[in-house]
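User: My instructor asked us to take a sequence, write out its structure as tokens, and then describe one feature of it. I'm not sure where to start. Here is the sequence I was given:
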Amino acid sequence: MSIKKDDFKNSILKHLKLAGTTLKDATKRELFDAVSKAAMELVMENWRETKETYDSKNVKQAYYLSAEFLMGRAFSNNLVNLTILDEVKETLEDLNININEIEDQEEDAGLGNGGLGRLAACFLDSLATLELPGHGYGIRYKYGMFKQKIENGFQVEYPDRWLDYEDPWEVERRSEAVKVKFGGEVIVVKDADGREHFRRESAEVVTAVPYDMPIIGYGVKNVNTLRLWQAESEDGFDLQAFNDQHYNTAVKKQTQAEDISRVLYPNDSGPSGKELRLRQQYFFVSASLQDIMKKFKAKHGNDFSKLPEYVAIQLNDTHPVVAIPELMRLLLDWEKLEWEVAWPICTKVFSYTNHTILAEALEKWPIDLFKKLLPRIYQIVDEINRRFLLELREKYPTDWQKHQKMAIIGDGMIKMAWLAIVGSHAVNGVAALHTEILKNQELKEWYELYPEKFQNKTNGVTQRRWLLKSNPELSELITKLIGDKWITDLSELKKLEKYADDEKILKEFIKIKHTKKEQLAKYILDTLGIYINPDSLFDVQIKRLHEYKRQLLNILHVIDLYNNLKANPDLDIVPRTFIFGAKAASGYKRAKQIIKLINAVAIKINNDPDIKGKIRVVFVPNYRVSVAEKLFPAANLSEQISTAGKEASGTGNMKFMINGAPTIGTMDGANVEIVEEAGIENNFIFGLTAEEVVALNSTGEYNPWNEYNSVPGLKKVMEQLLDGTFSDDRSIFTEIYNSLMYGADGNRPDQYYVLKDFASYREAQLRVDKAFRDELGWAKKAWLNIANSGKFSSDRTIQQYADEIWDIKKTTV
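Assistant: Let's start with the prediction itself. The structure tokens for your sequence are:
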């Protein structure tokens, strides 16, 4: 696409006029809105034409149901995908407008938290770019998860007010709102033929109002849709109660309804939090399925046998799995189908992605809560379970233990992962190792029962945002060398291999990396007031804070390095800047303590003159997509150090890779495939393997005291958690110490093998130090990572979903 500059200028001026201002008087926010709305005018025609094309060609469409979509800022990404960024930039320069300043007026969309939501965003980008008919459904959270601030070293959560201003990149579709019901009583009525019919009475009714975001394909006319639902009360304001001066009572229903779409992942450590989570999940899947069914019926009438021919629904982890019984409810109660007809339709429509190996992340709901909130859905789940148990008894007639273990309902809980497997035609893991662990360990019984359902779909990232947009300097070099086909076919990067020994090109790459480091250093100085040396090695770990991701191992190694420098200030090491970015879930106490420890260590090291700036530690608060776009291109080293067998895939590892940062990591998740593609000699692998972790877990013989007493320096590091080195309050890190040495919360000591892997990790870091001294040698390692990153595009992943699970076809607009 191209724009006519004069037309675009006039459109900007028109929108400023409609906002009651002028180019001279407009604020930066008003300019951002005007430019965005001018760009949206270009999008709307393609968006309309896309819908008409899919409809007229009668194509099968995929719908991606996800509790989160970590979209990042829309402004520049949309201009990149429209291929008009440079033209818009020039147009704005003619108007004396700095595009970077107005881009910074946009808040990151508060619709996701970590890898799950970022993956969903990459998938939507790839669907549109590949001209595939696929859309997203989720919740329009008012506040997102939270805005993280660091106060006295601790994470403090504030509302993420990303919707304080109108979002110019969304369109409200109030006329397409639907009703979602909670609670009430299920009434059974028999018709003249004696067939039972179900209806609900006295239910709470919540209105789901859709807001649509355009998902723009790169260099194509296809514009798919992310539809987000906002919860409102049907009759929330009680005027009589208000006039009677019962003000809280007057808005109680309204508040209760709006709570559903208020905050992403509310703290569910208590019963009310759990109920709100379940309300959120049912709310958005019920609204989405009603919407899908309405569109299907408008085109195909009541022939629901055709539903799997035209509709594919992907369940992104267990959050939307309640969609399975909800579709059954719609087919049984609304459309009056028999169970035997409805169930095969349902299973052909749904497919399920498992994103975890952690047992605690396999979602379960207490029966009492589920039954009270979703009484009809509970009846359907109960019937699914009854019929499934009959199937089990037929296949394993005497294995009562297996029946009990695999039952969807058991021990007072409803097991959503089990429901997902039974109710879907495909179940996929998200990395080769992860899928094998699911098949051979975590879901072994299920794989033996349904081997045909299981497959792997290794995750990917979109190179449009994570290279083309985030790192224009590197993108320009790549395009100069091999052309621009890589933007939509990342395997083209393989052509860069022939430059791996080209000193001139490597020096150009080194210069670009230094530029990105200078940009990040300026950002950190401007926002945090902390100076970091762009000539130092930028060692970066950015991801959700969880014990299995082992930010703790990283910071314990930093403490050990600090101790070595204190003992020998002239120690010859490469100057290093350790950069962390992570949010801890609001109810995750130990994760928050680890953030406090990182910040306490940072204060100690950064203010110690003996260290002479050889190492610095920075915790970047409120880690989010717009910050990640600065961190990935600037990193020299990618920290992917999860306990082997615990990380399903990872996608941050891929973003580092395509920006030229070798991995220091365990053979976990997609690290395994990264090493296969780029070579173990170009990365730094350490630690226990997944098989060794399984063996240690099964014997139960691991004792962290052995590491404590035998690994040089480790005892001192551990003692410093308690002796006041990093805090005047000597008890503040006691729980971290106890979790490692004695176990906590009923878990084994050092359950994620932080101490067990410490020596191996330190040795790998020594290899990093040695390798980084050879500037051209390091650049070659980084370059070969880029050249071999082609597999890790979400375009490849999505094409596999389209071909092997959804059966959707390229549809050019």
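For the description part of your assignment, you could build on this observation: The longest strand covers residues 204-216. Try explaining in your own words what that tells you about the chain.
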